[in-house]
Amino acid sequence: LTLENTGVTSIVAGSGVSIDQGTGAVTVTATGGGVTFDYTDSGTNLIIGESLTYTTQQGNVGLGEGVLENQTGSSYNTAIGYQSLQYSISGAGHNTALGYRALQGVSTVTAGNHNTAVGYEAGMRILSASNNVFIGHQAGDQVTHGNSHVIIGDGAGGAATTQYENVIIGQLAAAQYLGNRSVIIGKSANNIANQT
């Protein structure tokens, strides 16, 4: 344990651990074990995982390797699971992702807000889509810009990309459907492409 008094009070406890009470930054890094814990008071973020990069945001909670990895200005997100919300950057906020690559995004998510995804790769390819609920293994995994969906079920809404305002419930329901403003319920229901 080392206590430094150089105008700004800092406490360093062991290798890779630092607390700067002057700026409020706390950093704990465990090297070799593949896990990094990093907490900075840029707005009360708590991120536990590996490959973390974020600045100028607040209210984020992340757990898992690659979660919130490319954060630059996205706030009030919760990401739990390998690479969940990985590409959620400037302007994307108020999202909840739970599961392997849930709401991962495709290179840059710039305006995806108020989305909830629970399940393996649920809402995985999101770019600027907002106000969506994806629940289930690969539910809505192709949605990029579509808004206001409720997609529940294994592989449900599998073809939807830019479509909007659909309620799709059931395993593989609407797996090929490309319409808007529809309610589709049942296993493999309405798997017809290009129907509006």
Commentary on this structure:
Strand 3 (17-20) and strand 4 (25-30) form a beta hairpin. Helices cover 0% and strands 26% of the residues. 41% of the residues are buried. It is elongated. The model is unreliable at 1-14 and 32-41 (pLDDT under 50). Strands 1-2-3-4-5-6-7-8-9-10-11-12-13-14 form a 14-stranded mixed beta sheet, with no helix packed on it. With 196 residues, the protein is mostly beta strands. The protein has strands spanning 2-5, 9-12, 17-20, 25-30, 35-39, 46-49, 61-63, 78-80, 96-98, 116-118, 133-135, 150-152, 167-169, 183-185. The protein has no helices and 14 strands.
Essential attributes:
single chain, 196 residues, mainly beta, 14-stranded mixed sheet, 14 strands, 0% helix, 26% strand, elongated
Order of helices and strands: EEEEEEEEEEEEEE
The rounded distance between the terminal residues' Cα atoms is: 66 Å
Query: Tell me about the biggest sheet?
Result: 14 strands, mixed
How many strands appear in the DSSP assignment?
Answer: 14
The strand line-up of the biggest sheet is: 1-2-3-4-5-6-7-8-9-10-11-12-13-14
Radius of gyration: 20 Å
DSSP helix count? 0
Helix-strand makeup class: mainly beta
Percentage of residues in strands = 25-35%
Name the shape in a single word. Answer: elongated
Identify low-pLDDT runs. 1-14, 32-41
**Average pLDDT level:** 78
